[in-house]
Amino acid sequence: MYTGHVRERGHPPGLARDGVQEMTWVEDGVYAAGGDHIPQTWAAFAEQTGISAVLHLAHPAPSTFNGPPPARFLWLDLEHEQEAGEQVRRLAGEFVRDSRAAGRSVLLHCSHGRHRTRWAYVAYRLCLGHGLKGVLRDAAQKPWLAPYHTDREAWAAFRSFLKQAAEHPPGGAGP
Question: Coil, strand, or helix at residue 82?
């Protein structure tokens, strides 16, 4: 059985009383977690939670997730949000979007702490077509630590990048 902690939405963020890093419900089907506990107990954790897609941020190598691998897994060799250019942000956002569209619950995981996954959540919401101002406002609220120190201009450029990509898809077919 998984011996970590699944935190309810609205519960104060942080470590559980026994020092185990918690997993945080971000929105329906999207969770965020950090540290080594979940990779070490992956089989029991996945069985208990039903999570079958993982976006994993780790540098310089991915953590080993013990047990059967998730059905979908994306590892990005990043330590900080600033390292994620437009293509990487799109890759992360579309990975989460496509996983959710397929009915999968998604774990956003970073070995150095769940708050480092926040940018991937922002990318996902922007890939869904949500407005930048609202997405950044949401990313500055619980379960994330406030304030959210980010490059708003980089996110505005990413939003423009997504709009342009939608207007001019590969192969020349337009809307």
Answer: helix
Q: Are 152 and 82 in contact (CB under 8 A)?
A: no
Task: Please state whether beta strands 23-27 and 6-7 pair in parallel, antiparallel, or not at all (unpaired).
Answer: parallel
CA 130 to mean position of chain CA atoms: 16
Can you give the pTM of this predicted structure? 0.85
d(CA 133, CA 142): 16
For residues 53 and 99, is the Cβ–Cβ distance under 8 A? yes
Domains of the chain and any CATH numbers? 22-164 (3.90.190.10)
Per-residue confidence in pLDDT tens, the chain, 175 aa? 333 444 333 333 333 334 344 568 899 999 999 999 999 999 999 999 999 999 999 999 999 999 999 999 999 999 899 999 999 999 999 999 999 999 999 999 998 888 899 999 999 999 999 999 999 999 998 788 888 999 999 999 999 999 999 998 877 655 5
Sequence-distant (6+) residues with CB within 8 A of 3 are 20, 41, 44
- Residue pair 143/32 in contact (Cβ under 8 Å)? The answer is yes
CA distance 22 to 32: 9
* Matching residue, tokens 């390292």: 83
